[in-house]
């Protein structure tokens, strides 16, 4: 069996690993190792030398922040495949870090350092608004991605089945299990009882199952797969998009539904949420109803599931969003 080298932030062993990959010159020394930003899934560090800096990202067989939780060990290689697929598409490529190198054996990426940017998760805080120019950048990037790389334009496929299975579990199954070990009252007192009504709603669960099956089917378009504020970096050179580890060929409605859900959970004005969809629709076709259904799914799972967000909504506000989501899924009819 191949032996995987587990990277650490130890300077001496890291220098020797990087030289082994020819990612450092023989006389080049590491001057600093930093944590570039908050992440959960992977081992991500910034390496600085006198000459340059770059980002090292290793995927392990578990979630970095929760080592007891298993995760597909080769996910960094799927992320690398995404970068390969966009490598000749300048307008998409320019908005993402360059892939400098891949170590397939140890599941490590060497990525261009985009600098000390912050991601857009600050949007969940009260009174934080995305301006229209930023929204344009975000929606235009994703529309271009979808238009450029799909089964009509590309022979290559990227099923990323294991990551999809993991996501499916977290989005479509886990939030609806009555006894999943998650105590919603620890997140917000009263949320457990609110959640119960959703876990017991059979018509809702039927709709969720249908959309879950659809998520697992192969679709026509290369998706980023996790297109939410945590994947948008605010840098000196404008907005950059990172972390396509959940990428796959799927339905554009899933991708955009997720984005709209996060704009709503970040309490952006309805007009801005509608504008996001409009910007997208002016560039690429989308089924509105299916998009809203996936939006509803993402709202439900983020409020009732394990992958919680730093939302500023109180219980009543969360309840209102959950009810709106249920309405979309149940009354708009999924047969
Ligand atoms: N190329 C880059 N340039 C600059 N900073 C970066 C770069 N890639 C990642 N970062 C920073 O590191 C953080 C973690 O990176 P990333 O999101 O790729 O890791 P992750 O483990 O997949 O995170 P998550 O658990 O959110 O999926 C990012 O939020 C960002 O702040
Ligand atoms: Mg990630």
UniProtKB/TrEMBL annotation:
Keywords: ATP-binding, Kinase, Nucleotide-binding, Transferase. GO terms for molecular function: ATP binding; kinase activity. Residues 39-272 form the Aminoglycoside phosphotransferase domain. It comes from the Bacteria. Pfam families: APH (PF01636). Belongs to the methylthioribose kinase family. This is 5-methylthioribose kinase.
